[in-house]
Amino acid sequence: MLAILGLLTIVLLLYLVMAKKASPVVALIIVPIVTGLIGGLGLEIIDFMTEGIKSVATTGVMFIFAILFFGILMDAGTFRPIVNRLLRIAGNDPARVAVATALLAMIVHLYGSGAVTFLITVPAFIPMYDKLKMKRSTLACVVALAAGTMNILPWGGPTIRAATALDISVFGII
């Protein structure tokens, strides 16, 4: 019964948000409460909400800090030299702009933080994509593919951290 209610919750959330019947915040609050009450959870819902908030609060605060921090760095022009050089090389050729996007995303993603990669690369390239009438979904796809590629390379941040935690070589068995 709970699995069916969980599926119903997800489907209803998607429908309400995608059909623009409710804002995401309202849907994410109301729908789980209603389906929880239908499932007979009663006052247990409050405990679940409290535990859920506790489990995601630190991550939420980290993302708020990251957005503010990298927003300030972008406004201060910290990444401008790299972005300007890449855009100068790319010119007005959409294919070159996509390659420049991937290069910036790979440079930024050496540390291995997807949020930082998107926070730096997307705002830097949106004006160029809009100017060239390129799809923003292409920008998101190129950044995601570049970050994903960097995740599996031996010198990428996530691979090095995983290898260090497991006390193994990133280059495998020779």
Can you characterise this structure?
The protein is an all-alpha fold and 174 residues long. The chain has two domains: 2-68, no CATH class; 79-164, no CATH class. Helix content is 78%, strand content 0%. The chain has eight helices and no strands. α5 packs antiparallel against α6 (114-131) and α6 packs antiparallel against α7.
Strand count, sense and barrel status of the largest sheet are:
none
How far apart the termini lie comes to 52 Å
Number of domains: 2
* SS-derived structural category: mainly alpha
Number of strands: 0
Shape: extended
**Helix share of residues?**
over 70%
Residue windows where pLDDT falls under 50 for at least 5 positions: none
Can you describe this structure in just a few lines?
The chain has 174 residues and is mostly helical. It has helices spanning 2-18, 24-38, 44-76, 80-90, 94-108, 114-131, 136-152, 157-166.
Give the topology, please.
Blueprint: H1 2-18, H2 24-38, H3 44-76, H4 80-90, H5 94-108, H6 114-131, H7 136-152, H8 157-166
Helix pairs in contact: 1-2, 3-6, 4-5, 5-6, 5-7, 6-7
Task: Give me some keywords for this one.
mainly alpha, 8 helices, 174 residues, 0% strand, 2 domains
